[in-house]
């Protein structure tokens, strides 16, 4: 097997994808953003005008589409079939609907399967909510990233400004808390720290410090 499986989980806007990308580059591992996969099917559901709670129709739609990643800077490109959705899946309409789609058992079963295939050969950094607990229970490295709601909302505010999205801080805080609540209380593989995961509170850490810490943990296991 070429390289380890590294699972990075945690609540919304905890810096998972930023850090996961840096770590993946450092070890020449593949990076897989599982949140982008849940966002991609949510985007498709909204596009198709399918009701968010029509589980049979959502399932049928997911079975019809491919979700692909392509390298890109500063962010990986995401495609649903031949349509690039990199920016579209970060818009508030998708962000605020995604938890309702990701709670559905058929969606989770299908995407978990696709994620396991991507991670099968090792040499992967995968970020999400249930990677260490459900998708890759045997991952050699499991990290659970947390940060205060205030700090996460501030980070999101900055990210959004760069994308031309102008949601106020108070709204962001509310949306982050709502998404965490829905993701943590859903019936199937809720957001939770795996028993063997290492918890890192990044509230007063820089991105580089977090990435360095995770790199150390990987090096100890490699
Ligand atoms: O990580 P990101 O914020 O892009 O994830 C978007 C949403 O996708 C989460 O709020 C959650 O509902 C869902 N998700 C999930 N399981 C994962 C990754 C994301 O349910 N492994």
TrEMBL record:
UniProt-annotated binding residues for ATP: 10-18
Main EC class the enzyme belongs to: transferase
Gene Ontology terms, MF aspect: kinase activity
Cytidylate kinase domain ranges (all copies): 6-219
EC number: 2.7.4.25
Protein's cellular compartments: Cytoplasm
Family: Belongs to the cytidylate kinase family. Type 1 subfamily.
Designated name of the protein: Cytidylate kinase
């Amino acid at each position: 097997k070429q390289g380890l499986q590294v699972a990075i989980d945690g609540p919304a806007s905890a810096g998972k994808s930023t850090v996961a990308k840096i770590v993946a580059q450092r070890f020449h591992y593949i990076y897989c953003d599982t949140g982008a996969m849940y966002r991609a099917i949510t985007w498709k559901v909204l596009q198709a005008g399918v009701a968010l709670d029509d589980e049979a129709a959502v399932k049928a739609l997911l079975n019809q589409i491919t979700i692909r990643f392509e390298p890109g800077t500063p962010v990986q490109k995401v495609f649903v079939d031949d349509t690039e959705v990199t920016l579209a899946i970060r818009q508030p309409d998708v962000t605020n609907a995604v938890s309702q789609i990701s709670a559905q058992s058929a969606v989770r079963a299908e995407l978990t399967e696709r994620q396991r295939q991507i991670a099968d050969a090792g040499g992967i950094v995968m970020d999400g909510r249930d990677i260490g607990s459900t998708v890759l229970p045997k991952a050699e490295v499991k990290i659970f990233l947390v940060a205060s709601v205030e700090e996460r909302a501030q980070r999101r505010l900055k990210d959004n400004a760069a994308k031309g999205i102008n949601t106020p801080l108070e709204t962001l805080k509310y949306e982050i808390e709502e998404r965490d609540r829905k993701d943590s209380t859903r019936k199937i593989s809720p957001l939770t720290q795996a028993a063997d995961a290492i918890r890192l509170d990044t509230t007063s850490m820089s991105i580089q410090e977090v990435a360095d810490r995770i790199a150390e943990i990987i090096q100890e296991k490699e």
